[in-house]
Amino acid sequence: MTVDIRLTVNGDDYAISAPPYRSLLDALRNDCGLTGSKKGCEVGDCGSCTVILDGKPVNACLVLAIEADGARIRTVEGLQAAPGQPNPLQENFMAHGAAQCGFCTPGVLVMAQALLDENPNPSEDEIRFALAGNICRCTGYTKIVAAVRAAADDMKREGAL
Amino acid sequence: VTASSDRAIQGEADGRRLSVVGRSVKRADLIEKVTGAAKFAGDVAFPGLLHGKIKRAQIAHARIAHIDASRALALPGVKAVLTHADVPRVLHAGSPHPRSASVTKDQFILDDRVRYWGEGVAAVAASSEEIAEEALDLIAVDYEPLPAVFTPEEAMAEGAPQLHENRLPGNDVLPPVVVRRGDVENGFAEADFVLEGEYGLGRPTPSYMEPNVCVCNWDLNGKLTIWTSTQSAFMVRGTLAEVLGLPLNKVRVLVDHMGGGFGGKQDLFQHEFLCALLARRCGRPVRMEYSRKETFLGGRTRHSGRIWLKQGFRSDGAIVARQARIVFDSGAYGSHGPGVTNVATASLTSLYRCPNVDVSGRCVYTNTPIAGAFRGYGVVQTTYALDLQMDEAAERLGFDPADLKLMNAVRDGDISPSGHPIVGHGLEDCIRRGVEEVGWRARPAPARAAGGVKRRGRGMGCEMHGSSAYPGIKEQGNAVVKLNEDGSVTLLTGAAGLGTGAHTALAQIAAESLGVAFESVSVVHGDTDVAPWDIGAFASHTTFMVGMATKMAAEDVRRKLVERAAPMLDAKPEAISVSAGVIRCAGTNRSMTVAEAVAPTMGQPAAQYYGVGSYSPTKSYSFAAHFVEVEVDTETGEVRVLQVVPVHEIGRVVHPIAAQGQIEGGIQQGVGHTLSEDFRIDPRSGRPLNPSFVDYKMPLAMDMPAIRTILLETAPDPGGPFGAKGVGEDPIIAIGPAIANAIHDAIGVRFRHYPITPEQVLHALRRKREAERPAHAEP
Prior knowledge:
Chain A is of the alpha+beta class and about 160 residues long. Chain A has helices spanning about 25-30, 90-95, 105-120, 125-130, 140-160, and strands at about 5-10, 10-20, 50-55, 55-60, 70-75. In chain A, strand 1 (about 5-10) and strand 2 form a beta hairpin. In chain B, about 25% of the residues lie in helices and about 25% in strands. Chain B has 18 helices and 30 strands. Classes of the chains: A alpha+beta (about 160), B alpha+beta (about 775). At the A-B interface, helix 2, helix 3, helix 4 and helix 5 of A face helix 1, helix 16 and strand 28 of B.
């Protein structure tokens, strides 16, 4: 048995037909072809699949696709303004070397985006708290925290212009 | 082109200042990673893709009496089931280093016997993951349980069950490794005092973020293509070809981006064989992805076990004798047991000088998950014991530990663990710089006597680690550099993209050596049909060995380019320089671009230059000293690391930000090893107890302190490109002893094991209080 589900992902509409037990993560990866969100544990422990669902960051592996029916979703693919125009977070992750293998990076970026959407001027402690559900095994967080902080500064400057 | 390791280290390339090497240029892989465009093996999709799953044993040691797959095969959507009766029975090594003497051929794809809880006993391919999962429950396996051993002590006991019939008696993976120098008995006789201790090693796992995954497809000519997450595409190719009976050109291994490995993904895993066989059986592409739980069960761990260490010291601080016995737990198969045991044993001859050494190492099979390669490769374990005992000796002597370590540090000309002479004074430089940087001499007195609930302590730890796996493995670095007809450059490398930025470092080295801008070099990698052979991204090999091969290949092209350009500029080749894509004739204002030099001329095609570099093995050592501050909560037992100052001497730094990233990440893993990470095995059943990220505790963003990395370039190595040495292994080694020594500074307790958990801290503090309480005092 499958159910019809409508998702708006990064502004694009997707009409999919999936069994009711399909996770939002599997729907995004397999039905929408958006493989940027990663499956690191499938049980909400690692944060690699973090997406913004109607304005709130969630682990897409813990949400059923049918629960997201009609929702607006933002994934890592939707962070840049246009192809070739990375947003300040993405720019700073590159400049600071805040990614190594890159597997946790989509989830970390999306979580950081959700943080900055809510709190445009986070302290280091607030950044670390916000990212506490996103495991990175390569970089040691130092560069990630620095990149998020620098992105906040860049966005503030851009806003002031 | 032959190796030129005897050439002087060039601080400058051909008299020029380095223009690309040493700069944190833009890494080409990052734009794909921050946009979600990067394709990992698990992102590969095909129409008609089938999904494979492995049925795993829920018993640690058993003979399989019977497997009935009929009900699984009858489930609609199931396309194939494989058991040990259906797969080639070829004994192979989990760690198939093709040029290593220590390869342990002790694994079958599927066996009629189970040797650890979670071992795969059958595999299914079905039209969906859910159906494949359901089919696993329909496979009936009859087990005849066998007596099992879960610790090295049990495995070494007389009459213990043998895990492998055709291996050494006593469950030894390899004959004991013995390294002796001088006369240890005379050394102890000369000693003013002797320290002795037994050090317990936890069982950390690499826990890379990307679970193991592969996709296999066969073409109609019998050629296998496998997309897989591996650190060593050519080892996957070699072993699959060997076990499946194929020539190497019928196995193509593709790996673009991969989600971390830290050594663990050097091995071949059961799913890579099974996925290939299922795809062949079904005539359709098959994908197999481990769950996180399977990545724990069927993955690799660091070798746990014990180290007994005894050293004799003179009252002037000299170490006069060192004796050690290492026992490692290999788990159910040999994997990297021989390599790790050899490297660990040899490592105890060095770091701190000692003329009389008697060290031996054993590695034994047990019915537990497989231990394999993991960053730090045996040296994490031995350095923990050695450095902790140095701290203890300093206390006994009344010396500052930094002074005792400095006094005994290995230095230029000393024999390294590999037998090569140490180049330079890297370890001394690291200690001196760190002492200065953290104000070590002015640090507060130990807080252990103070009455506060939270007590701070400071500690330091040292380490050294070799670049490349030579001489254990006869390595080789290879590179092909193509100069295109517009002056752009293509570098072909077999080195895997582990995320370290190594491809960027190789492109920097190519640009520097050829004399073109960094931006004009692109790197082709991740395809065994195209790239030159490489052993894999491990053992701090890539920048060092492949970097040197890249330099040689680029210099080869440069030579050809200069020969062509010289007459065009009416100059002798000796007068020509190439820099930033411009060819100049010395003493004149005549110049042309590289693009102009290779462009077609009237009646002549464009120049086609290919440079090939093949670099023979060599060895160098990188060094580090880590300085940490910790805070111990005496009420909860929690240890927080407040700050870390790692000082690393890694020769020429090719890409500073990437090198720092390696160091910071290694420290994070080391903090986890030392304080919280331990893959626990039930001592009665062999069942893993914490195969998840909730129960296996890795440091998170809030747990990690500020890290202020200092890179030194004081002991560049002539064997590496522009004097570069490895950096990947080092940072995980010194942090452990630094933390343990800092905990001692804070609370006066020496923990001779890792991880040091809050529970153990509380127990130790209670015991200490009881011991210190006067016997007659009222409670």
